[in-house]
Amino acid sequence: KAEAEAGEKGSGVKLDGRSVALDVERDTWREQYVLRDTTRIPDEEGYGRTLSTWDARDRSVGEVIGQWPPGIQEFGSPDLAFGGDATEAGAVDAHWGGAQVFDYFKDKHGRTSLDGHGMTVNSLVGVTNGGQPYVNAFWDGQKMVYGNGDAEYKPLSAGLDVVGHEMTHGVVEHTAALVYAGQSGAMNEAIADYFGNAIETEAYQIPTDDPDSGLVGDRLCRTKTPRECAFRDLNDGRNTAKHFLGVGFGTDNGGVHLNSTIFAGALWDAREDLGATLTDKLVYRALTQYLTPLDGFTEGRAAVLAAAEDLGVTAADQKALQRAFNAHGIVP
Ligand code: ASN
Ligand code: ZN
């Protein structure tokens, strides 16, 4: 009988020093092992490559955004143990993190990849800003791109919340397709932060009520404390609708990252009150069944409450949900 491509079990060292298992393959042409995972989708479905992590060191953001840079290859290693360069570039973290996020959506929500149909998850690591440090990461509509970091920030894939955030943008694009501007854009950001942090707290078993659980990018810090260098905090109580920043569309697409914690803060409070499992289901159902591209925070609240009704949550939980939105100034 024909031998199915089963993949190889490799290992890697993350930027935090932890060793993790990695699904890799032997590339016989290059005579190397490469960060290519073909194990996560059954063969019968006709998909091979589930996740590939690409060496884009020294490529500039302008060369990779919205296009496939010529000549890049999947990150390689002479043996099954990925360390050294693969660690330093954030390739191990991106490949491991990508698999964590893939498994989260598959296991918790029955979703196969970002599009729900097994699309390959491609991650480019080591990207620079014209040869300079690049402290950002993004979903470009087709793939994840991770910057190389700088003196304070590790390569951005070192944050599982960041990996979860960018991959969730892919899920949002294939579901509610929230327009990336103004309130719908802030909600797109909020949902990316919500799932990014949810996935990180699950993977590292951080208690829901941990005061640092809402920090975004907290694992990237090299010298500062997590709270000092994190990009955002979903538990920031000042982020209510009355703090909504109406800014021009030229500024952060109308403040998508400035206003996101208003909505994400409500979701994160709900997660503390209703528990992780239920709240994740509600947010996922709201995203996939109710939200539409131009929705704002009020519609977002209604979507989560409708999902709660569908799933038959208790009256007490309904009340707790309403309280969470009210506390952030998101009222019907
Ligand atoms: N890290 C940012 C994000 O994913 C990049 C951006 O502004 N699109 O939201
Ligand atoms: Zn984002």
Second rung of CATH, namely the architecture of the largest domain: Roll
Structural classification? alpha+beta
Count of the separate structural domains: 2
Gyration radius, in Å = 20 Å
Topology pattern, helix = H, strand = E: EEEEEHEEEHHEEEHHEHEHHHHH
In what range is the share of β-strand residues?
5-15%
Helix content: 25-40%
Shape: globular
At the third CATH level, what is the topology name of the largest domain? Elastase, domain 1
Largest sheet: 6 strands, mixed
Cα separation of the termini: 61 Å
Tally of contiguous helical segments: 11
Please give the CATH class of the largest domain.
Alpha Beta
The distinct bound ligands, ions and cofactors come out as: asparagine, zinc ion
Number of strands: 13
Look at the structure and give the mean pLDDT. 94
Low-confidence stretches: none
Family: Belongs to the peptidase M4 family.
Domain Peptidase M4 C-terminal: 176-330
Protein name: M4 family peptidase
Domain Peptidase M4: 10-173
